[in-house]
Amino acid sequence: MESLARFLAQLDRPFEYAARTAGSPRDRVQGLGRFVREQLADLSPVQSAHARRLLRRLARLFQDYDRMDGPARADRLSAAQRIVTELRSLPEEPPGPKRPEPVGEADALAQSIERVPGIGGRRAAQFRALGAATIEELLTVLPWRYEDRSRLRAVSQLVPDETQTVRVEVKAVGGGRTRRRLAIVELVGADDTGLLSAKWFGQSYLQTYFKIGQHLMLTGRVRPNRYGGPRWQMENPQYEVIERRGDELLHSGRMVPVYHETRGLGSRAIRTIMRRAIDMYGDLWPEWLPEWVRRSYRLMPASQAIEEAHFP
After folding, report:
1. Confidence bin at 104 (pLDDT 50/70/90)
2. Residues 6+ apart with CB under 8 A from 279
3. How far apart are CA 20 and CA 22, in angstroms?
4. Average pLDDT of every residue of the chain
5. For position 181, what pLDDT does the model report?
6. In this model, does residue 189 exceed pLDDT 90?
7. Closest Cα to residue 115, out of 102, 130, 101, 132?
8. 3-class SS letters over the chain
9. Phi-psi region of 23 (alpha: psi -120 to 50; beta: other; left: phi over 0)
10. For an engineered disulfide with 66, which of 22, 33, 94, 140 has Cβ 3.0 to 4.6 Å away?
C-alpha cells in the first residue's frame, strides 16, 4: 500500500501534462480518471479525518472525468490541483498503528439524525417514517434506482416526448395563474443553439428563486410549446443552479439517486440531506473486512462504498 506522499508525487506529471493540454487540440490524455481512481485504491489508510475528506473529494472529481469534454476537464483539474496542494500542506502522519478516534467519535453514527444540518423535528419525523432515526440508519437509506442525467443535449438537439437534460442561461422569468387559479412560474432559458421554456405549477416561490443570468441544469420531458415563444418546453423539470463551472451537482448532470419517498419528503430533499450526512459522517463508517482481504481483491474502503452507493 502506498503512502500519501508517494501517491501525490505520482500525480505530478499526469496532472501537469493534462493541465497544459486540456481543452486544446493537443489533448491526448486518456484514462486519467481511471489512473487516479486506481492510485487511490492502492493508498494506505490515511489517519487524518481531514485528509480522508480531501481524498474523497478528489475521487469524486475523477469519477466521470474520462467522459468529459476539454473545458470541463480543465475545471476539474483546477479543483483537483487545489486539493492536492492542501493535502501537501497537511502535517505528516506519524508511523505506527492507527491512532484511536477522539472520545465520542465512535458513537457518532448512533446519534440522532437531527445532528445533520437541515433536519429539524418535522423532517426527523419524515425520515423516521423511512426507518431512519440515527445517522447510521440514515446512511443505509439507499436509493432504489438511479436516473442517468449525465448526458447533456443542446437545445437544438432536443426531441419530443423524451426526458433529457440541458444546460441553459436564464433569460426571462415570469409568473401568473392558470384559469383554475393555480400559480405558474415560467422561465425562458437559452444556450448557444436556441431557446427553451420551462414551467412549474404550484411553486410560486420559484419566481424569486430564479434570477436572470443564472446558469441552470434542467431535466424533464420535452414537449412542443403550443403557446408561442420557444419551440420546446418542459413542465415541472428537475433543476439545479450552477454557481460556477466545475461545481459538483446533486440533482442534474450526473447519475442521480432516486429514493423511496414519504409524505412531504421527496428525493430532491433526501439527496441534499444525504450529501451533508456523508460529508460529515461518512468517514466514520466502520471497516468490517480485514485489510488483507480488501487489498487482495482491490476493494474500496467501506466509507467510500457507502458514498458510491448514494452518489455513483
Report:
1. very low
2. 53
3. 6
4. 81
5. 81
6. yes
7. 132
8. CECHHHHHHHHHHHHHHHHHHCCCCCCCCCCHHHHHHHHHHCECCCCCHHHHHHHHHHHHHCCCHHHCCHHHHHHHHHHHHHHHHHHHHCCCCCCCCCCCCCCCHHHHHHCEHHHCCCCCHHHHHHHHCCCCCEHHHHHCCCCCEEEECCCECCHHHCCCCCEEEEEEEEEEEEEEECCCCCEEEEEEEEECCEEEEEEEECCCCHHHHCCCCCEEEEEEEEEECCCCCCCEEEECCEEEEECCCCCCCCCCCCEEEECCCECCECHHHHHHHHHHHHHHHHHHCCCCCCHHHHHHHCCCCHHHHHHHHHCC
9. left
10. 33
Euclidean distance between CA atoms 121 and 131, whole angstroms: 15
pLDDT digits (tens, 9 = 90+) for 227-257: 778 889 999 998 878 765 444 567 766 788 8
Bridge-partner residues for 177, per DSSP?
Answer: 183
One-letter amino acid for residue 2 of the chain = E
**What's the rounded mean pLDDT across residues 99-108?**
51
Structure confidence at residue 205 (pLDDT): 87
Q: Please give the C-alpha separations between residue 55 and each of 8, 49, 50, 238, 299, in angstroms, as whole numbers.
A: 11, 10, 9, 30, 16
